Amino acid sequence: MNLATDTLAKVSLENARILVVDDQPINIQVINQILGSSFQLRFAKSGQEALDICLSDPPDLILMDVIMPDLDGLTTCKIIKNTPNISDIPVVFITSLQKAEEENACWQAGGIDYMTKPVNPLPLTNRVNAHLTQKFQADLLKKLAYLDGLTGVYNRRYLDDYLARQTSQAKRTNHAISLLMIDIDYFKQFNDEYGHLVADDQLKLTAYTIKESLHRPTDIVARYGGEEFICVLPDTGAEGAKHVAELILNNIRALEIPHKLSPHKYLTVSVGTATIEAKQNYNIELTALADKNLYKAKHTGRNKAI
């Protein structure tokens, strides 16, 4: 069994989060009685409230009524499907509408399923289980596609997408964003001296150490290529980036991985930093600036951050 198949087989719905959207308390109560003991449920009584929840704490599945005041279920679903960060959330319509054109409107709005009221507990439970399983498997496959096969950290593909999204978010909110470019010092010599297998093991250990040096969920590390890594640090100014860079340097030094061909006698890294401060020029190319500073670090002794 390969990694993807093995991972998919282990999908668990235990912590699945479902958002129930209905303006009638009795309908919410019925669904809570059916699903409340098996899943984590949240409730919204309007389309706008549902959108607010999705944007702040996205659920894994939405059970949506169609007829609601102000923002109805169809419009709410269309907004969700056209909002990039939440467009993948599956929406199941649960409604009293039964005409063919009304059901078709639910599919056209972006729903993945349609059930009529009053709901039958067994079909509802089975359909929820099926849709959640499909959603979690899709999420896992997407995650596997975004991971570097050797080190287990994010790959270049994910990095490019994440950096673009976070830079856009920083510009929209007028927040700072920083990037670190990290290169293992004298790694070619290490590889030649100790062999590919040992070098791969130390590459994996270095990646893990960098990842463990990042303490916020929005901070990520990705393998940029070869022995180079990039960290994206949203909402982080130059001082914060320097602090994280020094933490990474110290944590790598603490490993004390022998490297007899290095003047430092141990495996070390060099770090180039780049920052766009809050409300500054968001058109700055962070990767190019970090690469320039990495070049300076590597040509002024290595084992440092600039």
From TrEMBL:
It comes from the Bacteria. The keyword Phosphoprotein applies. CDD domains: GGDEF. It comes from Paraglaciecola mesophila. One of its GO terms (molecular function) is diguanylate cyclase activity. This is diguanylate cyclase. The modification 4-aspartylphosphate is found at D65. It catalyses: 2 GTP = 3',3'-c-di-GMP + 2 diphosphate. Residues 17-132 form the Response regulatory domain. GO terms for biological process: cell adhesion involved in single-species biofilm formation; negative regulation of bacterial-type flagellum-dependent cell motility; phosphorelay signal transduction system. Its EC number is 2.7.7.65. One of its GO terms (cellular component) is plasma membrane. Keywords: Phosphoprotein. InterPro entries: CheY-like_superfamily (IPR011006), Diguanylate_Cyclase (IPR050469), GGDEF_dom (IPR000160), Nucleotide_cyclase (IPR029787), Rev_trsase/Diguanyl_cyclase (IPR043128), Sig_transdc_resp-reg_receiver (IPR001789).
